[in-house]
Amino acid sequence: MRKTSTLSLGRRAALVVSALGLALAVTPVADAAPAKATANTAVKVTVTVKGPNGNVFNGSVTTKGHSVTTASGGTHKCDGTNNEANTSAGPTPTAALDDAAKKQGFTWDGSWYPSFDDYFVTTIGGHNGGNAYYWNIAVNGEATQVGGCQLHIKAGDKVAFTWTKINN
């Protein structure tokens, strides 16, 4: 049995550490998770607002979470932290609607519900659903499961507000 000296163990350890460091330095990091966007970074999304007489708006909007003001609901934050849905602020469907309205010059309104910490969109471009219709919110073709100020959206998303008949 051959004995290994302390010096050769030290050299061996140094070689292993050096080789590992070199391998990590030249290995691509393709499998690394993408960097998270900073809190409340503006994103470009497509917003479509389809009323009973056709499109009220259809175009790109750059948006981020922000305070929203409506005639019926007042001014409240609309940044995804509503109702503790997310821990950081970000762009939301209702904030995108608000930015589209400012860009195109149409009006919208919504009632504020403190228990949900969110708006219920009641009117867009003068169209009020009343008891028969409502403004459905969808992102990428899927109806939202939370309010429009609670859901974070990301760059490239397709946000739609659609005049929808209530099924009785």
From TrEMBL:
Signal peptide start and end residues: 1-32
Keywords assigned by UniProt, alphabetized: Signal
Biased composition (Polar residues): 80-91
Transmembrane segments: none
Domain Transcobalamin-like C-terminal: 115-165
Coiled-coil ranges per UniProt: none
InterPro entries attached to this UniProt entry: TAT_signal, Transcobalamin-like_C
Residue numbers spanned by region Disordered: 67-91
Ligase listed as a keyword: no
This protein's record includes keyword Signal: yes
Alphabetized Gene3D superfamilies for the sequence: 2.170.130.30
Protein name: DUF4430 domain-containing protein
